[in-house]
Structure formats: structure tokens, C-alpha cells
Design goal:
Order of helices and strands: HHEEHEH
Radius of gyration: 18 Å
Mean pLDDT: 81
Strand content: 5-15%
Number of domains: 1
Low-confidence stretches: 1-21, 23-30
Shape: globular
Number of strands: 3
Length: about 130
């Protein structure tokens, strides 16, 4: 927890250096807000598991891109392990619903893509360990 405290101090230092508005509130640059919200979205994705493989979809390598704009709109580019996946019609909606639950996300869209196709090369090291591949 010592690191959390240090990170909070660093963030507080950052805020102290930012310009303040007339009402005394601190203005933040949009990229900082987007990165923070993007990290929260990624964390939410790590709580969604593939129905056939006991690994979350982020570590499984199904997430090709996470973009969060300054207005809180989140766009997720993802694939599935195979185009014939039995949840191909419903799983993107599940992902969208989970992302919408993230505080600060105003809207979410999920784009299902098949190129490049998913392969085991996209597995994170943690997923490889979990699946006994290393």
C-alpha cells in the first residue's frame, strides 16, 4: 500500500501545479483523464471471462484496442477465439454493458473484428501460466 500512497502524493503534486479556474477547481488536461478512465475500462474488461476458457478476455488477447475520449465515450475493438464462437451474437453486448458500468464512461461501443484472427500468440504471460502453456 505504500506505493498507493506515493502515487496519490504524485497525483496531488501534479494537481497542485495545474492551472485553477476562477472557482478554484483544478483543471486537468483531457489526456490524463482519458488515461485514468482507460485504465478503469481495462480493469473492468479483466473481470469478463470467456465462457469456454477460464481466462479473462483481456489476458486472453481478445481485446485489440481500448479508446476513451475526453467526453467519456469508450470504444472497444475486440475479437473472439473463432468466428463460429457460440456467443458471437451476444458477447459484445455483455462487454458493452460491463464497460458502461465504469464510473465516468458516458457511452460504450464494441466493435467485433476478425482481422487479425485470434491466435494463442495473443495470450498474456499470465494467461499462458493459468492455462498451463508455460
Amino acid at each position: 500500500m505504500g506505493n498507493d500512497s506515493k502515487n496519490s502524493e504524485t497525483f496531488a503534486d501534479y494537481l497542485a501545479e495545474q492551472d485553477k479556474t476562477e472557482d478554484g477547481k483544478v483543471e486537468q488536461d483531457a489526456p490524463l483523464e482519458s488515461v485514468t478512465l482507460e485504465e478503469q475500462v481495462i480493469e473492468a474488461l479483466k473481470h469478463i471471462y470467456d465462457p469456454e476458457i477460464p481466462v479473462n478476455i483481456y489476458d486472453l488477447g481478445l481485446i485489440y484496442g481500448v479508446d476513451v475520449d475526453s467526453e467519456g465515450g469508450a470504444n472497444i475493438r475486440m475479437t473472439l477465439t473463432t468466428p463460429g464462437c457460440p456467443v458471437a451474437q451476444t458477447f459484445p453486448g455483455t462487454v458493452e454493458s460491463m464497460v458502461k458500468r465504469v464510473s465516468g464512461v458516458t457511452e460504450a461501443t464494441v466493435e467485433l473484428v476478425w482481422d487479425p484472427p485470434w491466435t494463442q500468440e495473443l495470450l498474456s504471460e499470465a494467461a499462458r501460466v493459468q492455462l498451463g502453456l508455460i
